[in-house]
């Protein structure tokens, strides 16, 4: 199914006031398991750095929830968030001006083309690379845009059932994906080819995470894909499932997985 129309509808609902958008970000932080893993890695990276004037690239910013979270860690960090969707970029710039976070800027950029040599201390790419066919070119551009010692943090589906693909005959649950998921060695090799000196990768979305994803994301998206009337039912649905999803997310984020439908990858220049 196509996810972008549902994302657009959600954006329209929660963009009405800054308070609603903040609420939306907090809900995403709790429900999306990838956020638990990404925040954990970002906290490790940020330790001892919050007083430094650092430059950060949010490569494929989407709703802007990761930029919002990072900009709250330090007012000394300057964050450039880029995305190809002009409407989302405009909405995000308006929101961040409304809440007074002047250290954040959103811009329309294509990651296949965008490069800002030796500019960033950290680059973040969350659920972006599965949408881009020219992935090695993007990795090269981000590598060139990082300063020496800079780190790229990636969250993306794996080939162990990412995008809800488990057999050769199945197709991705999300139609916008150009690949079903990365083999862990494949993405490490591609990052090395792009110039990164050190790459670390681990699985996310183990057994607890996969159950949580179905409850918190797959089933609600399927419902909304059938009819927008399910927006009325969703609060009651989450009232029942939300506590279980929180517990499952907590377990997944604190467990080492031999396999999983997601990957958390770190690469250093």
From TrEMBL:
Domain Methyltransferase: 54-158
InterPro entries: Methyltranfer_dom, SAM-dependent_MTases_sf
A Pfam family the protein falls into: Methyltransf_31
Gene Ontology molecular functions: methyltransferase activity
Keywords for the protein's UniProt record, in alphabetical order: Membrane, Methyltransferase, Transferase, Transmembrane, Transmembrane helix
CDD domains: AdoMet_MTases (cd02440)
Keyword set includes Cytoplasm: no
GO biological process, one term: methylation
TM spans (from-to): 229-251
Gene3D superfamilies attached to this UniProt entry: Vaccinia Virus protein VP39
PANTHER family hit by this protein: TRANS-ACONITATE 2-METHYLTRANSFERASE-RELATED (PTHR43861)
Protein name as catalogued: Class I SAM-dependent methyltransferase
Organism, scientific name: Hymenobacter ruricola
